[in-house]
User: Fold these one by one.
Assistant:
Number 1:
Amino acid sequence: MIIKTGYELPLILIVGILHTALLKKVLDTFLPAEDKSRLIWKLAFAGYYLLTTAAYHIFHISLFYEMCNLAGIIGVTCFYRGAWAKKIWISMVYFCLDTGTGLAVSFAGSETIRMQQSAISALLLLICTAVICHIPDPKESREKTLDKKQMFLLSAIPILSVTVFWEITYGSIGRLTAAFVCAVILILNLCVFYLYHILLKNYVRLREQDIYKQQTIAYQNQFELMKESQSRIRALRHDMKNHVLALEGLAKGSKTETLIAYLDSMQEFMQNPSEHIYTGNEALDSLLNFKLQRAQEELKKVETDVVLPEKMNLHSFDFNVIVGNLLDNAIAASVRTDEKYFKLSMRMENGVLFLFMVNSCSGIPEGICEIRRLSEKSSPEHGIGLSNVQRIVKKYHGDMEMHCKNNYMETEIMLYMKNL
């Protein structure tokens, strides 16, 4: 039986504040916050504080308290963005750290120390949180999510940890042995965060490699187009003398219609059917021709209207991320519809690049689309996702909007090219 002292309740209230602050710190490190008012955020964490503090004061460390704690942690994560697999994983790992610190102090300490075990366990949890938040992930990594298999493997350790906690709490195991097991579990759950960090770095590296690979293939495709166009020019130049004689004869004979038809056939011969875009900018032409060639092969109707200057201060990697991902997503959505329609329009006016894209789609509610929702639904092969496309647009002080109307998705982007 634990002896209660007069300062135990104030101590529990203070420790509850520390627990709530540590939970917020961990969630802010790994998840992007929802766009909600500050009052809602205060109410969410105040609810967690009241629930866990009351449960701990009444039931101390017990099954009911742990259930309330886990429910409160998961409830607070609902106010953050991100895939549910990632939310549940973070909730479970933090819950294991919280529970493990409490049990370790409870089993390791004497009866006297156990009266202050809430404060000691909170200090131990503070150390764990400091270690976790020291992981140097960039802020934009909060938007990224690993695939389901990786998240399942990461979740296996905290799930097994909960099972072990149950066994040592209600099983017949020595106190020192139980304390040692809790310490080992704490270390394992801390290692899970570092494992997540490593997997995330590899994920980002693979996505970047995929972008560069697509860029290389696009350049190769553009090179083949240039070779074919040069071959057509050489062929036309070889027969130019005969063409000039034929045109001269038609002009002298006043056969205007025949002359125009002959000129049209020469122009048609000069055109490369695989070259959909030609601006003179190799980075832009190679990417667009590569993507539009795929669109021509898979869709019924493809329209393009691209008028851009040859020289633009353009960062090819960022442009590849923006346009490449948008075209991939648009083509993938159009393929699943009966219309199979796609339109791309790009223009440059007063140093501002305007991009307008329309594609047929299905299963998307009408109105302005939340880009993060579409990003969570998009498949991994679509580059780094719409959320990172939006991040790059904001990086250059641009704007991006997507809205659906009559089963057609319209995407509008404005970029200030002076910053690119």
Note: Residues 366 and 404 are 5 Å apart (CA to CA).
Number 2:
Amino acid sequence: MKYTGKELKLRARESMKGNYLVPVLATVSIAMLAFTFTCIGSMLFGGNTTLSMVLSQLISLIFSLILSVFTAGVCYIYLNIGRKKPYSMNDIFYMFHQSPDRVIVVCFVLTLINMACSTPVYMVQGLVLRAKTPEELLRVFPILMGASCLSMVLSLFVTLPFAFSYMLLVDDPQMSAGDALRGSVSLLRGNKLRLCKLYVSFAGMGALVALSGFVAYIWVEAYMQATMVQLYMELNGELEESRQACAKEEADLFEPVETNDYNAEA
């Protein structure tokens, strides 16, 4: 059974009632950790030399790979919420005990893909560096914005089939990184447009996020992640199994009790 985007969002809202605190705190904690890593990288390699820039990018990559393991832990929290299972703040460390190298490999592959998709931006950056006056910068700015938008669109469509890689790794401690990437592609075969529409449907909340000074972003992010979990559970068959189990329980509950012959004679 396929659920519409509205139905998936409704299920997500129901699952998140009273459950926002832990995932929001987990997201904020990871954001603070990412900020700390960025500051460390800037202090260590803040020069303008080619070597400093290369080392800065390298340390940034290493930090992002470490953060990916925490991100997978947040996925574990959302999956537990969607499945109505116990969860806690400590779950952000869950994947560190479940062969974290698998998550790191997936993150590395996705990072390489994103870097390839960012080629238009890299090409335009040269124009920005060569601009000497404010007028030249203004002429280059629309080109830079166009290249950035193109890179974002490319990244979205190229990485879309791998959206459930982390969730698959969380669900199967024995699954390899390659199997997770292939498994995500398989799950989303014929459903990529649905996922894309779900992403786009949250764009309307951008105004709310902007008006709140981006404070509301963490709640919108939690809502979106919970919705992605519902789609994942639909595609792997969990929602259908749950629906059938509920239907069976209802049928058993209202099934008429057969009287035996003794009671009939009585």
Note: Residues 5-254 form one domain.
Number 3:
Amino acid sequence: MGRAMKTRTEIDSLGSMDVPASAYYGAQTARAVENFPISGLKPHPVFVWAVVIIKKCAARANMSTGRLPEKLGAAIVAAADEILAGEKADQFVVDPFQAGAGTSHNMNVNEVLANRALELLGHQRGDFSILHPNDHVNMAQSTNDVIPTAIRLASLEMLDPLLEGLEGLESALAEKSQEFDHILKSGRTHLQDAVPIRMGQEFGAYAAAVRKNREGLEACIPDLLEMGIGGTAVGTGLNAEPAYITAIIEELVVATGFPLVASVDLFEAMQNMDPFLALSSALRRTAVNLGRIANDLRLLASGPRTGLDEIRLPAIQPGSSIMPGKINPSMAEMTNMVCFQVMGCDQTIMLAAQAGQLELNVMMPLIAWNLTFSMELLKNCVQKFTESCISGISANEGRCRRYLDDSLGLVTVLAPYIGYNASAAIAKESVVSGRSIREIVLEQGLMAVEELDSIMQPEHLTEPGLPKQ
């Protein structure tokens, strides 16, 4: 038999509740742990950071209005600073799949801060007659304005490294565009031969797509900067003085460094999940493009003997437990998996955003978890995809040239000179006979050697206009 866990008893509005003696959280958190053993997941650390920093700023704002005694407020701020420095991270234990709106998570933070503040004041954990999770840590707040504010702050905090990573990916693709710009190859549409293209042009298009995705994410920032904190329960600001509402925004600006502003409509800021839906949509768009690029790289690197083999991806690990020497496009495959997951998270966020009712969206914990999870996945994925795949790509120039010389797409250049139907007939004959387009054109006397050689130079076929003669 194992040794029984030591507990202490705390009391909330439902009565007494046993809490692990070593825990800094209290009765409401213990109830949530008991009620919601759903996924085994925990809140993202940045989301915890966001709620804690709101509590710290709220305490400072409430002290500035004179409502919160300086001694208690200073203890709450000191406790918050410890957590913001990385202490007691294991005390935030509520499953993301919890009661609506995020009350359980909000109270988890309130209780941890209250109990640590009590210790700093020389009192026992749970002695809430001195300093109370609701009355003091949650003063002038509601879960309903804390949680959407925290999602905004967490999103802003996580955007910076993601945007930096995307800028690095864009730069790496642009460098490959320059490196490969001299390499001529066959274009492909419908996975069939098409007119020539330079490999540098392909990679330049990837860089441009990533740039547009990065700009799409940046466009989400202004709406995320609008804070609804101070609306309390339904947006009216009940139990929050106007001076507090002004002060907490000012405190948050100082604490986070973000140019935050108060929402002009606290009701809308509480009810409407549009800023998170827009960010999630921009993340999905980014995932769609990253997945598409990863697919192209897998296809272009297929082989090496029985595939396209136009590029070589860095070998980062053995590719098979049974086939010696096999190397797989592992980083591109990982990227695909991440992109699928982000797309799924976006669908969840969309459903949760439209499920809001009247003055509140109770699905905010689901939005918070899926949004932070998506941003964490993409940040890590983009960094590894850039470092361990894109930066190490090399081109197989010989294979590219052989495909180009054999491509039926070259017949397109003849259309302005001999007509579409005659060109199509040549292509058909080339497929049936296996002979080259050049050979058939000369055999049929459709062009002189000099004219044909002049217009069929692939170097002239990758820029606008008719082939040079």
Note: The chain has a mean pLDDT of 95.
Number 4:
Amino acid sequence: MRKKIYIALFIFITIFTGCSQMSNNRAEENPPQRDEFLKEEPIKTQADTVTSIFSGENLPDEKIEEIQTECSDLGSLYKDIYLNAEKNPLSDWDNKKVISQESIDKIEDVLKKAGYPVLNSSYIYPPFLEHSENFYAFWNSVQNGVDAETSYWEISDSGGLNYYEFQYIDGKPYSINAFAEWGKDGQLKIESAGKRNVLNWDMTYHGDFYYQDVPTDRHWEASILLRLKPVDKNLFELTEKYIKPIGYYNVNAFLCDWDTSDYGNLCFNDLFESLYKMENNDYVYTDQFEKEQYPYFHYCVPAETFENTILPYFEIPLAEFRERTLYNSEKDIYPWQDINVSNVSYFPAVISDVMESVENIDGSITLKVCVMCPDMQTDRLFTHEVTIMPSDGGKFKYLGNKITYTGENELPSSQPRISAQRTDTSKAAG
């Protein structure tokens, strides 16, 4: 995930470099008064060739040179791996070439063994910081009001180096970023760098770190989570299999209390596309269904498709299911709305972690899930327990959900998309 962010960041740099240049041109129209006969050509430094990071401050020459020296040192450790790595064009960016995750893993291993704090990345598991003990020491100094700094490295998908540094000076937090790429001369060179004020940062209850250093008028995807230790792989795989495919956006399966004896406010209709993808490993394409505007906008999903998609994941009688899902017996269809401007409910990015898995006497398992929201500066937005009955062939059924804790922050909306299913239309989006 982080690598996609850096691709987007590079695009921002390219666009706003032009804006920065326009600003420089305006400044040159009214230069400070000085003796015109003593003009001299300025001596170019390395900082003159480094693009300022969007919304950040320029770094002084000495700091850029310091980071450049470290980049060169690290580059010398893995240059051979980079040169021998196969480089392929990025699918949506022909001018950029990337190396394989296998090559990135080899580079990270070299830097890790050399003692450098480096992000350990993976296609499967979230990246985490190797040698994070220095980061904990840094945070301890911050908590005690002592000036401190710490830094770490990340291998970009192109094989370059991303440098991150946090500073705490005179009670104020800062972040420094620098991004280096391999040049045609076979050397790593910093291409962009900058310094920002950190707007908020904190250590989570579970010992990870999050921060925000980019102002935004939107309250989502503003903060970055830096994991300081690896996730429990077994628990993470449970999150990926049972929780993430459904999630918390415009679907309420994990946002209300229900079980097989009382399905409460659970909206089955909104589960259609999530379960369809789980069942068929493909997305739902709306053009395969007829659509109607009365009595509300909806797509007409054939009963066989709808029932074969959702019923395998729940224990509910067909008659009750049809009653709860606005089944149209005349047309033998179910109404379904995809997420659109009339029903979407926006919310900041949330991260769910299964913290514990409990085996029950009847063979079911209960997953205890903690949901964090860095943008709201909380690592415990709410917690819930999901009970699941596994079966042969990797199949399973959802047996219930229970909210076990909610803090003072607002939660994602639990209102169904179709207005006729909403229990409180005043809370509905759109």
Note: The radius of gyration is 26 Å.
